[in-house]
Amino acid sequence: MSPVMSADKTIIPLSSFGNGSAGEIFAEVKRSGTKLVVDDDDRAIGIVMTPEEYMKMSDDHDNIRLLAIAEDRLKHFDPSRLISAEELYKEFGITDEDIEGWEDVELE
User: Fold this and answer.
1) In what order do the strands lie in the sheet with 36-40?
2) Which of 21, 32, 52, 79 gives the lowest tally of CB atoms within 10 Å of its CB?
3) pLDDT digits (tens, 9 = 90+) for 30-58
């Protein structure tokens, strides 16, 4: 039975990569976008996934990390320290002419 056509499409024996099935395995990953767990002696040793799935997972990881940072910062947030944009501009000597044309700029 082909490793890709097994009952559990997520588990592929490591030996499948050596018997000429690697192309078929990668074609299935490309078609389905499904992550395949590579298994050797019933031990998970790696994952094969599409670049898109990897990037999504990486982005999700980054977003979770950034959320944790934001939550930590909010614990220490002191609203009494807030100042208006006008106060900030005055403190640093920024004029309307200095910021003209910047209204279309998005900051993240």
Assistant:
1) 11-13, 36-40, 43-48
2) 79
3) 888 666 677 777 778 888 888 988 999 99
Instruction: Tell how strand 43-48 and strand 36-40 pair up.
Output: antiparallel
The H or E element containing residue 47 is: strand 43-48
For residue 104, the SS3 value is coil
Query: DSSP letter at 35?
Result: -
Q: How far is CA 81 from the centre of its chain?
A: 33
Q: What is the largest CA-CA distance in the chain?
A: 74
Residue 94 CA to chain centroid, in angstroms? 37
Domain positions in the chain are 3-49, 53-95
Query: How far out from the chain centre does Cα 64 lie?
Result: 9
Q: Which of 67, 5, 61, 71 is nearest to 32 (CA)?
A: 5
Q: What whole-number distance in Å separates Cα of residue 28 and Cα of residue 16? A: 13
Please give the Cα distance from 48 to 34 (Å, whole number). Answer: 8
Tell me how far apart the alpha carbons of residues 25 and 64 are, in angstroms, rounded to a whole number.
31
